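User: Can you predict the 3D structure for this chain?
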Amino acid sequence: MKNNGFPEGFLWGGAIAAHQAEGGFREGGKGLSVADVEAYVENPTRFTYNQLNDLPYERILEAEKDPDLVRYPKRRGCQFYHHYREDIALFQEMGFKVFRFSIAWTRIFPTGEEEEPNEEGLAFYDDLIEALLAAGIEPLITINHYDFPLALAKKYNGFANPLTIELFLRYCRVLFKRFGSRVKYWLTFNEIDSITRHPLKSAGIIQETLNDENREQALYQALHHQLVASARATKLLHELAPGARMGCMGTKHTNYPYTCDPKDFLNCLEMERGDFLATDVQARGEYPYWFFPTLRKKGIRLTVTEEEKRILKENTVDFVSFSYYNSFVTSTRGDVDLVPGNLHVGGKNPYLESGDWGWQIDPLGLRISLMQLYDRYQKPLFVAENGMGAMDRVEEDKTIHDDYRIRYLRRHIEEMQIAIEEGIPVFGYTMWGCIDLVSSATCEMRKRYGFIYVDQDDYGNGTLARRRKDSFYWYQRVIASNGSELG
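Assistant: Here is the predicted structure, written as structure tokens:
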């Protein structure tokens, strides 16, 4: 039975990531992750993302020895580690049906190589899950969200080494045994396709260790290792937690040709094809027809065994989830201005407006993305991230009037509603950064996404008090009406 386009039981909620929200980076036995060595970037430019994607090894070692919380804001986040009960109460007040969060791998295995898990870390997530369930909120867990163990990055160069697969599966086994009976929805890797854009974040790979000749081959081999690890984790979940569902999570960079020149269309098609690569494997169980011939033309030979092919084919995901924030245009002539997006830069579309950080706003692109994904995979879809970073202002009476955020979300939800009415099975939506957290790309706090304002600035100053923005009450009405009240 449907209510104005949204199915009964639709999972409305919000999403965060451990490395951007938790804080407590040395508490509870937690080890260092690659996120803990990412420094704050003041006044970032549109090219900052490209600069961040190649963190020099010397800077990694320097950050590892530096205990500072100001220079490295992801170590403090918004202190969800200490405020999660208060925050869950606010989520419950909004009416959340689902809450997507990630588990910090280094809270469970501080270096990634311990024989036994850290009980204090497991106990924290036990309490978090119980608090969510008591509030009537389904947990949706991302197993690894851009916080690969730093020790494994240094020792093995992350997923560039196939030994990491077994360490990841040891971690998964602990999670599924401990939480599998209570958690129905899981994701293996956040935006797994991003390995070629930011290998350290995505797969613990220190690019400085790769020379120009083998860089691309090493990254695609590491992606293969991640895909095998994801398929084996899916198999493990189904064995240890019957009834639980595993999803994949990809970045949806929806692209349009800049002109009707066939060369622009071909260029756009090739970019989209590359963006779909990882999801093709996770949802269909095999690499697309064009992948290996394309690599061979570049002189790249991947090591892929027949057993690995079988594992990929037999252990596809139960649903497809993705992040969608903005779209880009593509051109073969190099005459298009570049604009930033989700940890990426692309061509500026003259028909779209932009937000405070230059990300273009394209609500229709969300419906187009849903159409593309369902046409391609025929699996249930989940919008795992959608939202806008903005400069919020606190008024003298402590209110925050964020009409711009409401307008952005309303327009995107309207397009999602149309897609559902047309028959696309979307079963959930988690708005990104439902409580203000530290930016993934630049470690800023002033780039705010949330329905809930956190009193903290870029340098960690503030009371950490939580305040409801106007969008808080708007989303509360959306959820209560199951999407029928979007005004």
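The longest helix spans residues 215-240. The domain at 2-480 is CATH 3.20.20.80 (TIM Barrel).
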